[in-house]
Amino acid sequence: MFRRRSDVPLACEPRHPGWFTPRAEDLLRRYDVARVAADPPRVPGGDAPAAAPRWRYWRWHGSPRIYYSDYAEPALRELATQVRAATGRGQRWVVFDNTAHGFAIPDAARLQELLHGDVPKQARG
User: Fold this and answer.
1) CA torsion angle for 111, 114, 116, 119 (degrees, to 10)?
2) Which domain holds residue 27?
3) Which of 70, 76, 87, 94 is most exposed, with the fewest beta carbons within 10 Å of its own?
4) Greater confidence, 10 or 76?
5) Please, are residues 118 and 110 in contact by the beta-carbon 8 Å criterion?
6) Residue 118 — left, alpha, or beta (φ > 0 → left; ψ -120 to 50 → alpha)?
């Protein structure tokens, strides 16, 4: 098993509903594997990080069009709220995978501004 060889953070981004059951979450937790909070979620509950207590992981792919859409200010503010709420639960990782039109970098930069309190008064366009 992987955990016998390494202690690095490990994540699983499941797409089948079977991975969103208490039994599956127990299995992930036992092996210290984080369940990714994905956007858009493929199944109900897929938008919340779970399992591994030492870290939380969000992976946003663009919505409504996966890989192509950027995120509006309200969505980024909500994500910042979720990431802040995970404080005290170890590491927090956020990956933007909406790269087809180059939105990942500006979305990540805006999230950093929101997380670090450098929030301009005007809304992002």
Assistant:
1) 130
2) 2-115
3) 87
4) 76
5) no
6) beta
